[in-house]
Amino acid sequence: MKEIFDGVYKDGNRIFTENLIPGKKVYNERLLRKGNKEYRSWNPYRSKMAAAILKGLKKFPINRKSNILYLGVASGTTASHFSDIVREGMIYGIEVAFRPMKNFIKLCQERKNMLPILADANKPERYEAIVESVDVLYQDIAQKNQVEIFIKNMERFEPKHGIIMVKARSIDISMKPNQVFEKVKQEIKKHYEIEEAIKLAPYAKDHIAIFV
Ligand SMILES: C[S@@+](CC[C@H](N)C(=O)[O-])C[C@H]1O[C@@H](n2cnc3c(N)ncnc32)[C@H](O)[C@@H]1O
């Protein structure tokens, strides 16, 4: 087991995080015991962040002290791996839909470094009072105006790093995904310097991860 980034481990061609709650699975991932530690397999087909790492991400902007604002946290699949990593940080999980939020709330009862917030990411003014300092903004929202939501939240919380998982088909189904990716990059470049852009196929088709 080799640590490739802060709190992210690789064994063969799989990646792992160290389980914050040993013995407990979050989404039926594999648990692996090595020495006195337990690791959770991080599935790239279930988590776009894992896909970006396996597709060659160079710089991972999250460490054990990071505070993360997570837009579109759903049931917490990816957030649970962040929670394994940010042992001295906090994850503010924003989700607009009640159903996935119910599962996320259960997860937050065990994992004390995550806070559930039922809110619309279009309206950061609704949660800005709850969210303290943000080091990393992570967004995974399949909406037509996903770039607008990202810029709006970046401007309001001014994190050091921003990550957006872009789904081309939600922005324009009539355009080729590569054209959508170029359009999105041009839009983001008006505001921020792009550090890395990684296409997520075959793990997530027609998606690109953009790091600023
Ligand atoms: C692709 S899923 C997220 C999966 C999750 N990020 C993971 O990797 O575990 C997208 C989520 O964004 C949520 N969403 C869509 N529009 C939103 C909005 N305006 N504000 C907050 N969440 C939103 C959806 O309800 C859905 O749960």
What do you see in this structure?
By secondary structure, the protein is of the alpha/beta class. It has one domain (43-211): 3-Layer(aba) Sandwich (Rossmann fold). 27% of the residues lie in helices and 27% in strands. The chain has 6 helices and 12 strands. A 7-stranded mixed beta sheet has the order 8-7-6-9-10-12-11, sandwiched between helices. It is globular. The chain starts with a strand and ends with a strand. Bound molecules: S-adenosylmethionine. S-adenosylmethionine binds next to α2 and β7. Residues 47-48, 71-74, 77-78, 94-97, 100, 120-122, 140-143 line the site of S-adenosylmethionine.
